[in-house]
TrEMBL record:
Domain of life: Bacteria
Boundaries of every AB hydrolase-1 domain copy: 72-306
Organism: Acinetobacter silvestris
The protein's name in its UniProt record: Alpha/beta hydrolase
Keyword vocabulary terms for this entry: Hydrolase, Signal
Any one cellular-component term (Gene Ontology): membrane
Any one Gene Ontology molecular-function term assigned to this protein's record: hydrolase activity
N-terminal signal peptide: 1-30
Amino acid sequence: MKRTFSKLFLTVALSLGTVAISSVSTNIMAAASIDIQSVLQQERVWAGLQTKRLKVGDIDWAYSEGGQVGKPTLILVHGLSGSRDNWNRFARNLTPYYHVVIPDLPGQGDSKAPADFEYSIPNITEKLRRFAEAGQFEKDAHIAGHSMGGAVALLYTAQYPIDTKSLFLIDSAGVFKSANTPYLKDPATLRNMVVAKPGDLDRLLNIATHLPPFIPKELKDSQEKMMISQSVNTSKLVEQLILMSKMYTPDSFAIATRVIDQPVLIAWGDKDQIINVEAATELKNLLKNAQAPIILKNVGHMPIMEQEQLLVQPYLEFLNKYK
């Protein structure tokens, strides 16, 4: 059975295949054509976020920023083929209390990267650090990452421990012993998650969410066209993930993970078809200071969009301990 969402603004996102699709008020949906960028901008405002840009080296970063500067900073990292807008519904609950920064990663969303940009996790992590330094967001930051963004957030925390206060991993990518989905046993299947032609978005929704949402056709078509236009960069990211799975073993991944001393919160959907829920316990056992994972019932790979309200209170309580 499919769910119909009726909130004024709703972002449905897929990550390790993430996509931002917004459901809007009746008067907007009645329009003959939908300007999805305008819709997303309205959703950011609803979440207490402003759109900003920052040029750092050869990358032109687009990012959302909200909350009061001077309060503890949260940096939220989206997943493969996603954008900062994947976090809007979740961030709406954070901006009243924290300084929230959500970048579009290089070559994703509205951020621009050179044609020869290297889309490896280490390089993306290093560029994220340069972005944080340029924006003066790096000191005493709390990092959160979903899916591929979880791998970036984990590596960022390991490499910059002095400036990182806590880590939140949501259905995080990694190289696991316990994960046994087709997408990890045969990483080449990740190529099937690239939205490269009409119809691919429906297939991706069925993979990444447990109960695929109803989305108005005009919005779905508009978002699918946008994702098709970005499919070249998405494919480069996928190839880097496949390469990572060949270069690293669960043991080498464990070595990198065990150096993290920061407090860690882990959350997972128990119906995740991309990275199965057993990986949550494996991560917890690798990390020195991780709480018991939050396992969300009947939720797929996209907790921040499928059931974000179930994560808000635990995350706020976690953050309150480590301000």
